[in-house]
């Protein structure tokens, strides 16, 4: 970025600091004034709303957060008494006032707006503008038309004296003329002078005659003067631009035209300056009225509208634009620092686009603007030949990155032109635990993380390489031109580090990111994009199997593994169809009396060739391939049928069954479970479904639905492998489990180290939450003895009994 642009940004930052002191003064005046009028809370809320939106954009992250907290406090105080309102607002208000005083005077109070990134995301690739000569004696018309045409990539030179036409053409060497018909009251003066110039010069320049009038005589004069077109004022700008492009047989690299509408002058100035520096043609308006007035002049390709504005809200402005016959198709993008679901839905319905939460950092502003204006221009250039869905396969609307379809074309081209001494590779990047982040923090926060990752990666990859977004949390990188595999590996390590060094700030603190990486080289035997992408898929699948983030490079052994997985999947499907999957039961005993109280039903595969296989041999692949619901159906059928026979003789017993991630996401087993409970007249309280806390948090939206349905059925829930996941007290309360199962690893740790703190804490926690505590994997008498001291209720493990078939259990003596 040039020194002048840097200076402009520093000026904006300096002005913002001055405005912070004004905000402080205004807040203090409102706080100290008479509070008989309830409007004072709205006034404070309005200032907090602006500071929430602008603070982070200017680099004052803490200030923005404190403003948000005050805004939320104002919202919560709406229906309280005056005394409670003052009490509730006092703490967040004084915290914000202190931050305003600090940040308004400290020269290094905040990180400067991240404006240096503008050159990296240069969107328009503007080449030399196309020169046009405009000859008209109305300075207002000339100025207005010049500004409009500049937005389409034309450079307009103005001349108000028709007698200077020859000299102006010689000075500016235009490729086209726009000439008024009449000058200073002299009719046809423009046409007459153009005729004289043509007779002397004869240059085949297109001439567009314009006039405020329309008559046969005027049009005849235009024709006799060699005019190319005759247009009546006020000009139809899109028509004029279309005619210019067609006549000149070119379309200049016109800057993308963006309009910003926001009543926050500080944000408007920052965003406008930043987008202008990045090559956009920006029009700004501080009110709905200004925006409507400027629409005809600027013809924007995208309008960003702040939702909360006085007089006419952003939603109302959007509706006005949508009802306007000339501007109804302009894409709208709504912005606000408020997280109001109803308002977001209204924006989405109106704009057919996502709602963007403030504060919007400058790098993210560039990203969201770029993706939308490119999509809009693509649609217009392919009008009638493509749909919005088709354009979204070209560029991702969230990150502005090209999509997988583009990558396939780029790989095919690169394979055809690859040099023998250069290495080419596809790198697949899968963000770890992203689904959990989405569930815990919401999709808007998840979208911001994806945008941040895309931004960071684009800053670190080579200029000749291309980053793509495949779907969800997966990115693809096509990298070429490396001289050795060692250099490729170093490059990929640096790319991975750029992700791991990205620290995301959330309300829960600093969040670190990590990724699994799959790399596939374009070896000599690779002849298509499909092969290379498949190999990258196989490599990243291997990487994701690791318990820690990993980089995996494809080789032939991985393909062998892939073949084994294919045959294993085929065998599993056959086994499901022929009832090869059977149920074994592991007894569960009380810790104190060693009395049998229940069973855990476990799946086994009675393989025709390999014998009895444990779950680790088939469950992971079944989950991946979506076969778990079939296994769950068979397990329920077998185990509840058997349990019904036992339950008639031993009504105190319970039966536990495990659920998986697929069962949570699509709980189609519920109807079958309800049917079996009714068929065998089983007490639903004697059925316990085991689920891990990590699986619950992995897909909490579906899990909430499942928990509600299970509660309605009357069955109970056991929290399995407790302590190995996220272990949040708030989630324990939401889950409302009847049993808590302690993972074997904690018992083993005590057995090896003698440190009982974790084990003791978990037992006590279960008791506090009114849950029965079950210890898994008990193998030694001293372990059982210690669990008895801790007050653990039940246990299972090889010390008492291994998992057995029903016939084996029936041969033993019931305790």
Q: What would your notes on this structure say?
A:
The chain is of the alpha/beta class. A hairpin with a 2-residue loop joins strand 12 (466-471) and strand 13 (474-482). The protein contains 32 helices and 26 strands. Helix 1 packs antiparallel against helix 2, helix 12 runs parallel beside helix 13 (341-351) and helix 18 (443-460) runs antiparallel to helix 19 (485-500). An eight-stranded mixed β-barrel has the order 18-19-21-22-23-24-25-26, surrounded by four helices. Strands 2-1-3-4-5 form a five-stranded parallel beta sheet, with helices on both faces. Residues 114-127 and 383-393 have low confidence and may be disordered. The protein has five domains: 3-113, Four Helix Bundle (Hemerythrin (Met), subunit A) (Up-down Bundle); 130-248, Rossmann fold; 257-392, Rossmann fold (3-Layer(aba) Sandwich), CATH 3.40.50.2300; 404-554, Reverse transcriptase/Diguanylate cyclase domain (Alpha-Beta Plaits, 2-Layer Sandwich), CATH 3.30.70; 569-811, Alpha-Beta Barrel (TIM Barrel), CATH 3.20.20.
Topology:
Elements lengths: L2 H30 L6 H17 L5 H16 L5 H24 L24 E6 L3 H12 L3 E6 L5 H8 L4 E4 L8 H12 L6 E5 L4 H9 L4 E4 L4 H12 L8 E5 L3 H13 L3 E5 L2 H11 L3 E5 L7 H10 L8 E5 L4 H11 L4 E2 L4 H20 L6 H5 L11 H13 L6 E9 L2 H8 L1 H18 L5 E6 L2 E9 L2 H16 L2 E4 L2 E4 L2 E7 L7 H16 L6 E3 L2 H22 L3 E10 L5 E12 L3 E3 L5 H6 L3 H22 L4 E5 L2 H5 L3 H12 L6 E6 H6 L1 H14 L2 E7 L6 H7 L3 E4 L1 H10 L3 H12 L3 E4 L5 H10 L3 E2 L10 H6 L4
Parallel strand pairs: 1-2, 1-3, 3-4, 4-5, 6-7, 6-8, 8-9, 9-10, 16-17, 19-21, 21-22, 22-23, 23-24, 24-25, 25-26
Antiparallel strand pairs: 11-13, 11-16, 12-13, 14-15, 18-19, 18-26, 19-20
């Amino acid at each position: 970025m040039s020194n002048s642009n840097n200076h402009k940004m520093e000026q904006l930052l300096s002005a913002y600091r001055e405005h912070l002191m004004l905000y402080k003064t205004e807040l203090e005046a409102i706080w100290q004034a008479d509070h008989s009028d309830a409007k004072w809370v709205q006034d404070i809320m309005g200032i907090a709303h602006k500071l929430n939106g602008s603070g982070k954009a200017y680099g004052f992250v803490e200030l923005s957060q404190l403003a948000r907290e005050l805004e939320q406090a104002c919202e919560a105080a709406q229906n309280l008494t005056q005394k409670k309102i003052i009490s509730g607002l006092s703490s967040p208000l004084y915290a914000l006032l202190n931050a305003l005083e600090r940040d308004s005077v400290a020269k290094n109070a905040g990180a400067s707006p991240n404006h240096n990134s503008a050159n990296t995301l240069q969107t328009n690739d503007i080449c030399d503008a196309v020169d046009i000569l405009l000859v008209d004696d109305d300075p207002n018309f000339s100025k207005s038309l010049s500004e409009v045409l500049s937005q389409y990539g034309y450079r307009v030179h103005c001349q108000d004296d028709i007698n200077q036409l020859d000299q102006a053409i010689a000075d500016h060497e235009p490729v086209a003329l726009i000439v008024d018909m009449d000058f200073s009251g002299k009719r046809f003066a423009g046409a007459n002078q153009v005729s004289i110039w043509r007779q002397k010069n004869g240059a085949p320049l297109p001439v567009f005659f314009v006039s405020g009038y329309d008559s046969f005589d005027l049009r005849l004069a235009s024709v006799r003067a060699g005019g190319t077109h005759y247009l009546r004022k006020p000009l139809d700008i899109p028509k004029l631009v279309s005619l210019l492009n067609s006549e000149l047989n070119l379309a200049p690299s016109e800057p993308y035209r963006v309009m910003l509408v926001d009543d926050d002058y500080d944000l408007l100035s920052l965003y406008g300056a930043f987008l202008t520096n990045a090559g956009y043609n920006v029009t700004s308006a501080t009110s709905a009225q200004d925006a409507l007035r400027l629409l005809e002049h600027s013809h924007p390709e995208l309008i960003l509208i702040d939702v909360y504005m006085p007089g006419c809200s952003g939603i109302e402005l959007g509706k006005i634009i949508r009802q306007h016959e000339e501007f109804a198709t302009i894409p709208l993008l709504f912005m606000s620092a408020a997280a109001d679901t109803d308002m977001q839905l209204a924006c989405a319905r109106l704009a057919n686009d996502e709602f963007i939460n403030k504060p919007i950092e400058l790098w993210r502003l560039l990203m969201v603007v770029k993706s939308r204006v490119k999509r809009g221009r693509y649609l217009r250039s392919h009008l009638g030949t493509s749909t919005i869905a088709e354009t979204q396969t070209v560029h991702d609307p969230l990150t502005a990155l090209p999509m997988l379809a583009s990558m396939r074309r780029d790989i095919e081209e690169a394979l055809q032109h690859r040099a023998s001494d250069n290495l080419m590779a596809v790198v697949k990047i899968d963000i770890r635990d992203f689904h959990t982040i989405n569930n815990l923090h919401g999709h808007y926060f998840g979208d911001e993380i994806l945008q941040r990752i895309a931004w960071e990666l684009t800053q670190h990859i080579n200029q000749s390489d291309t980053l793509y977004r495949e779907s969800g949390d997966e990115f693809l990188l096509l990298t070429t031109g490396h001289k050795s595999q060692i250099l490729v590996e170093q490059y990929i390590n640096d790319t991975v580090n750029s992700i791991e060094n990205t620290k995301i700030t959330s309300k829960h603190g600093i969040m670190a990111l990590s990724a699994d990486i799959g790399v596939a080289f374009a070896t000599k035997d690779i002849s298509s994009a499909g092969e290379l992408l498949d190999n990258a898929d196989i490599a990243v699948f291997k990487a994701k199997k690791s318990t820690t983030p990993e980089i995996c490079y494809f080789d032939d052994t991985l393909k062998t593994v892939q073949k084994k997985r294919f045959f294993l999947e085929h065998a599993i499907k056959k086994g499901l169809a022929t009832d090869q999957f059977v149920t074994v039961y592991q007894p569960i005993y009380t810790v104190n009396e060693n009395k049998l109280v229940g069973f855990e039903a476990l799946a086994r595969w009675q393989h025709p060739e390999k014998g009895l296989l444990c779950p680790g041999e088939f469950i992971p692949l079944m989950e991946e391939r979506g076969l778990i619901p079939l296994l769950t159906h068979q397990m329920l059928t077998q185990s509840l049928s058997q349990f019904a026979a036992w339950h008639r003789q031993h009504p105190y017993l319970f039966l536990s069954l495990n659920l998986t991630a697929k069962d949570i996401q699509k709980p189609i087993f519920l109807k079958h479970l309800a049917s079996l409970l009714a068929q065998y007249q089983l007490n639903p309280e004697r059925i316990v479904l085991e689920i891990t806390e990590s699986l619950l948090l992995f897909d909490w939206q579906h899990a909430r639905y499942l928990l509600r349905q299970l509660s309605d059925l009357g069955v109970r829930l056991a929290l399995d492998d407790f302590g190995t996941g996220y272990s949040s007290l708030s989630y324990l309360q939401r889950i409302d489990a009847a049993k808590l199962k302690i993972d074997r690893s904690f018992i083993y740790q005590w057995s090896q180290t003698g440190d009982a703190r974790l084990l003791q804490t978990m037992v006590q926690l279960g008791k506090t939450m009114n849950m029965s505590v079950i210890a898994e994997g008990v193998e030694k008498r001293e372990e059982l003895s210690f669990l008895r001291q801790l007050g653990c209720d039940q246990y299972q493990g090889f010390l008492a009994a291994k998992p057995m078939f029903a016939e084996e259990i029936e041969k033993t003596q019931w305790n």
